[in-house]
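pinning this so it doesn't scroll away 📌
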Amino acid sequence: MLRTIHPLAGGVAFLTILIFWTSTVYSELFGTYATVVTVKSMILNGLFVLIPAMAIVGATGMSIGRRRKDDPAIAKKKRMPFIAANGLLVLVPAAIYLSTKANADAFDTSFYTVQVIELIAGATNLTLMGLNIRDGRAINARRRMAAGK
């Protein structure tokens, strides 16, 4: 069951961050201020999907991989604290701040500074999560080959 829930929750988390990131870039480059306000509000609401998905991925990953000592599993274990810290300490506060500023029509230097930080942190998490997906697939491939499937 965990081997089904883990990749599903990971996919939801990855796609949610990807949608947040691309929506932000698109709205900033091609949208109006009203579009940016809408996107920032939707991202804040989307945290109610992202945070539980990330918690499920972390919990199921720790359960599945607690005894694993192979290189891909160790790499995933090393990345996860950074992904979680980046999300909780940078991305969530940035989403709250940017939504508040956008809804107040305060598109000033601090808004755009935090926006750049958020985009960098989001791209970093997408990259690290992509590496974890790659390593998870490698682990599954090895497990299937060992089982003779």
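📌 and the second one:
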Amino acid sequence: MSKILNILGTKKFWIELVIMTVGMTITAAAVYYFLVPSKLIIGTISGLSIVLTKIFEGMGIFISLGTLIMIINIILLILAFLLINREFGAKTVYTALILGPLTDLWAKILPWDAKNAAGEYILANPNPVTGTPSIMGDPWLDLCCFVLLLSAAQALMFSINASTGGLDILAKIVNKFLHFDIGASVSVAGAVICCTAFAINPFRMVIIGLIGTWINGLVVDYFTATLNNKKRVCIVSKDYDRLRKYIIDDLQRGCTMYEVIGGYSGEKSIELEALLNKDEFSKLMDYINKNEIAAFTTAGNVSEVYGFWNKHKKKSRQHAEKR
């Protein structure tokens, strides 16, 4: 109990709770406003559940959509605890539980088929494929809006080692064991699920769903790279020791030193390499410019970092405080 109370008392817990709630609010909006009205089956657990419900009905077995989603999510949550880690599984329990209520909340506060002041339905355009009304009146536009919102929410969740549930768990498993990019993992897991829609949907709608699943993976990678973007900075300078101390003592980051030989001059020098976030990189460049340090600097983007990068900084802060 004391361990749980300690976790609840941390700033990190409440920040991540807010992020998860915002992410699931976005996901619920994407499902309610763009997926449900258009009848699109994207590679998601909700889409798989819709397909299985129809198949079971044809066999004379009646299971509600909500029950089927819950059963599949429970199985996937167990896999998350066993194959990924407890933190990821615990966060996904929360996100999986609030998706349904948040979807209902959108339906109450801003129903998609709401009438305007004149009493006429705002959404009068039917989907040309399904014949049912949809937000945009076109399956491709519905698809684009859904994918953009869902991908943003997924990237936000992955950045704090959480997920929107369902498909994201499968994607995280593929990412961990096959070492695919997280976007490619989403595409692989989603494509398999999306193909099940052949059992209930016209060929054109299935193809739209498959294309949407592929685009979803690309957009997730883009958003993830943007959120997790780091800078690998390489500096060659005679004032390398001064820069080393600034990186370690002020930025509280580690660095690696290499002996290099200039190809033109043949002179030996020291190259510093450090991995920094955007704010730290900006501070470093500002320090170099203000102090007029002669340095040859290159920087490249790094979208994923594994290991103890953040833990190292935490330890260095504790060491600085003790001093």
